[in-house]
């Protein structure tokens, strides 16, 4: 089964080897679950999950592109098959400080296909409010060239209808998971975002936002008692943009005893026509921290000097204490 996953990834890699990657993306796509698919809401072992992600890229080229995401999700106490979550996203790019802020509400439902829960489906929906704004005063225009040099004090003579836009978006997704045993499973998902095609234009003309399609497959395969192989790939399509990432992490469990759990990760990944990157991470009890760095080899290399972006992902899972149910016995009269 793992071989099939790698074969599918190789085929997709060959298909999209000439594709264009979006400037803003997440390298650690497996560690920002609800951005990947709304079906991930509540998809974890525990009661509450808190996730934080930060990315900084193109510092060597221009004003750094920075992206921050915070999310939390949970199971509903009386409806364990129902998961809900919130995701906050803020992005700032370029000289004009184009900022995008989005807040999403996510909900998912678990459907067991077999009585032993080895095959399950998770359907999900998300509802988002998106706000974008730009600072036109930070941009330069040809009218500010006085014939000899650029003069920022000259008027640009540009007329802008607005510098901000707010709209709503709707998305949906579905996950399939095959649990082989405690250390081996396969998860695949397909999601669609911006289904209502909200208007993202700053002018009077309507510019619908393209639907973003996302497909991923992730596997976990136990090599021996301590080592696990975790291959995965992620494909995103939005308008003319294509982004395909494939690679694998290797996990080594340092200790896994009752009340004590530690593991480390190391991985190598490839983003078609854009970058390769390495990732490292560590599990410590209920915490996870992951780091990655992109090595750029696209047409931007003369300006980037092969330096791409740094990214960090954090996760904390909280499980409520569940005391054992004590069974009281009545002592016999003769004791």
Question: How would you explain this protein's 3D organization?
Answer:
The protein is mainly beta and 335 residues long. The chain has a single domain, classed as Outer membrane protein transport protein (OMPP1/FadL/TodX) (Porin). The chain has a 14-stranded antiparallel barrel. A hairpin with a 7-residue loop joins strand 1 and strand 2.
List keywords for this structure.
335 residues, mainly beta, Porin, 14-stranded antiparallel β-barrel, 3 helices, 14 strands, disordered N terminus
CATH class: Mainly Beta
Please compute the radius of gyration using only Cα atoms. 24 Å
What class would the helix/strand composition place it in?
Answer: mainly beta
For the record, the count of structural domains works out to 1
- Beta fraction of the residues? over 45%
CATH superfamily: Outer membrane protein transport protein (OMPP1/FadL/TodX)
Cross-sheet strand order for the largest sheet: 1-2-3-4-5-6-7-8-9-10-11-12-13-14
Reported by name, the CATH topology is Porin
Task: Summarize the amount of helix as a percent range.
Answer: under 10%
Element-level helix/strand string: HHEEEEEEEEEEEEEHE
Show unreliable segments. 1-23
Number of strands: 14
């Amino acid at each position: 089964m793992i071989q099939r996953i790698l074969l599918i990834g190789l085929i997709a890699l060959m298909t999209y080897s000439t594709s264009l990657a979006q400037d803003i993306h997440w390298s650690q796509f497996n560690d920002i679950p609800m951005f990947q698919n709304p079906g991930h809401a509540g998809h974890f072992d525990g009661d509450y999950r808190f996730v934080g992600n930060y990315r900084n890229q193109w510092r060597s080229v221009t004003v750094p592109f920075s992206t921050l995401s915070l999310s939390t999700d949970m199971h509903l106490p009386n409806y364990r098959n129902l998961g809900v979550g919130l995701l906050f996203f803020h992005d700032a790019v370029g000289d004009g400080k184009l900022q995008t802020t989005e807040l999403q509400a996510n909900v998912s439902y678990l459907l067991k296909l077999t009585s032993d829960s080895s095959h399950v489906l998770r359907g999900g929906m998300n509802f988002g409010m998106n706000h974008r704004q730009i600072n036109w005063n930070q941009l330069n225009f040809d009218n500010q060239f006085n014939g000899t040099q650029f003069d920022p004090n000259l008027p640009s003579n540009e007329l802008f209808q607005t510098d901000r836009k707010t709209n709503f978006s709707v998305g949906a997704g579905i996950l399939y998971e095959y649990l082989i045993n405690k250390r081996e499973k396969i998860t695949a998902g397909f999601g669609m975002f911006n289904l209502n095609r909200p208007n993202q234009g700053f002018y009077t003309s309507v510019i619908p936002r393209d639907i973003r399609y996302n497909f991923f497959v992730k596997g976990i395969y136990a090599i021996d008692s301590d080592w696990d192989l975790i291959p995965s790939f992620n494909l995103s399509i939005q308008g003319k943009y294509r982004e395909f990432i494939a690679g694998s992490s290797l996990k080594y469990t340092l200790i896994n005893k009752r009340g004590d759990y530690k593991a480390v990760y190391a991985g190598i990944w490839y983003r078609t026509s854009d970058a390769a990157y390495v990732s490292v991470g560590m599990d410590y009890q209920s915490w996870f921290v992951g780091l990655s760095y992109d090595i750029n080899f696209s047409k931007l290399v003369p300006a980037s000097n092969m330096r791409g972006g740094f990214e960090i992902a954090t996760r904390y899972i909280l499980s409520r204490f569940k005391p054992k149910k004590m069974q009281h016995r009545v002592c016999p009269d003769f004791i």
